[in-house]
Design goal:
With 134 residues, the protein is mainly α. It has one domain: Tetratricopeptide repeat domain (Serine Threonine Protein Phosphatase 5, Tetratricopeptide repeat), CATH 1.25.40. Helix content is 64%, strand content 0%. The longest helix is centred in the last third of the chain and has 17 residues. The radius of gyration is 23 Å and the shape is flat.
Length: 134
Amino acid sequence: METRPAQPPEQPSEQPAPPAPVVREPVLSAASKALVSQAQLQLQSKNYPVAASSIERALRIEPANPLLWIELGKVRQAEGNYVQAENMGRKAAALSVNAPRANSAAWSLIAESLRARGKNQEAQEAMVKAQGVR
């Protein structure tokens, strides 16, 4: 009977890299698209409460769509409510971690809102995030 020398255990090869996150840019449903278009016209007419109401209706349809939170943030910004605009941007940023374009737009909204309130250092940091996620 022949004995073989013990083979050293196989060394595990390098671990494969974790899969890249799936990029899923959000899109608006037809109903939300119509409401956003309506809101943009209302915003141009400086009819901020009605524009906000249109976006809020769209948010009832698609509450997790970061594009709608960005649109609502733009309305809040136009009416001078920069704290709420920043909050809308942060909500959009949280909802768009795997959507670089939407995330960049959210951070741009945050930066603009901070800058409007004189928080220039924080605004610069937000703008770096906006440019870094593209």
